[in-house]
Amino acid sequence: MKLNIALLAGDGIGPEVINEAVKVSDAIAKKFNHEITWTPALTGAAAIDAVGVPYPDETHEVCMKADAVLFGAIGHPKYDNDPSAPVRPEQGLLLMRKKLGLFANVRPTFTFPSLIDNSPLKRERIEGTDLVFLRELTGGIYFGEKGRRDGGETAFDNCVYTRAEVQRLAKKGFELAMTRSKKLCCVDKANVLETSRLWRETVQAMEKDYPEVTVSYEFVDAVAMRLVQWPNSYDVLITENLFGDILTDEASVISGSMGLMPSASVGEHTSLYEPIHGSYPQATGLNIANPLATILSAAMMFEDAFGLKDEAEAIRAVVNKSLEEGVVTEDLAVKGSKSYKTSEVGDWLVANL
């Protein structure tokens, strides 16, 4: 199979972890007789520095022509530390989601047997955890009208959702639940927010179309609490943009490291695959960043974008082997044991494929 993949390395450690994901992907392609064409493009702070905007038209064209997008991370201290910056890397990410129609972020959370004690939560709380968040990505407070008034003394951010936006996200949630344990949780704040009441009534109206799925409705604050108490009580969770942003980061630490969790953003056009971590500017160029989340994102890409399940399983298997044998970067290394450089982990994975 010929695979045409847009490569958006981004900022900070993005290029370093992307490089290892490319090495592993190329090894898989060779093993299974595929041909990958990688097309690099600028985004984030790197794009601002080069052309003045965080998501150039040229990058969008590359993404639209690709079969999938593999994405690193964006963000840079010179923008993070300047609240008045007129152009910011994160604006590029939001624009990319909007222009590509990436309305659903698919964020799995699971545990690795060899790392179960790395989690800040007790073993008995998290064993067996295997849940998936579907976060709405292109609506809500991040995309609503925002501004200042009263001479800058009052700020506002409007949260707006349409029924159609809720329906298309919920549909993916129901469909995913049907392939798993047929359990779906709608996360909202319907006791306070009108947008949440729209979410709840819309999902309730859809239940009849999926009679095999058991649906629960929980307030976001209750879910935040239960995620650290009984995470394995959840299977598929759907929620709006802001709630999903917060809850998925909370859930990510269950595994023991944000450097392990992959994600996908899907919707109307080309799907995008990325690690959940940020650009980690303090580690830029030090060859210490954990590449496994990006490599596991590539595994998601092989399976979901191309239907290549065996290839994805091969990547996951070799990643599990590396964890079991302690071939890990310093964030996962046991005290007193050797840690490996970012590139060394990638080289080991390739050799063991």
Description:
Its EC number is 1.1.1.85. This is 3-isopropylmalate dehydrogenase. Pathway: Amino-acid biosynthesis; L-leucine biosynthesis; L-leucine from 3-methyl-2-oxobutanoate: step 3/4. Homodimer. This protein is α/β, with parallel strands linked by helices and 353 residues long. The protein has 2 domains: 204 residues, Isopropylmalate Dehydrogenase; 111 residues, Rossmann fold (3-Layer(aba) Sandwich). It is 42% helix and 19% strand. It has 13 helices and 12 strands. A 10-stranded mixed beta sheet has the order 2-1-3-12-11-4-5-10-8-9, with helices on both faces. A two-stranded antiparallel sheet has the order 6-7. Helix 1 crosses helix 11. The radius of gyration is 20 Å and the shape is globular. The two termini are 19 Å apart.
What's the β-strand tally? 12
Order of helices and strands: EHEHHEHHEHEEEHEHEHEHEEHHH
Structural class of the helices, strands and pairings?
alpha/beta
Whole-angstrom Rg: 20 Å
Helical residue percent band = 40-55%
Strand content: 15-25%
So how many helices? Answer: 13
- The coarse overall form would be globular
Strand line-up of the largest beta sheet: 2-1-3-12-11-4-5-10-8-9
CATH class of the largest domain: Alpha Beta
Catalytic activity: (2R,3S)-3-isopropylmalate + NAD(+) = 4-methyl-2-oxopentanoate + CO2 + NADH
Pathway: Amino-acid biosynthesis; L-leucine biosynthesis; L-leucine from 3-methyl-2-oxobutanoate: step 3/4
Cofactor: Mg(2+); Mn(2+)
InterPro entries: IsoCit/isopropylmalate_DH_CS (IPR019818), IsoPropMal-DH-like_dom (IPR024084), Isopropylmalate_DH (IPR004429)
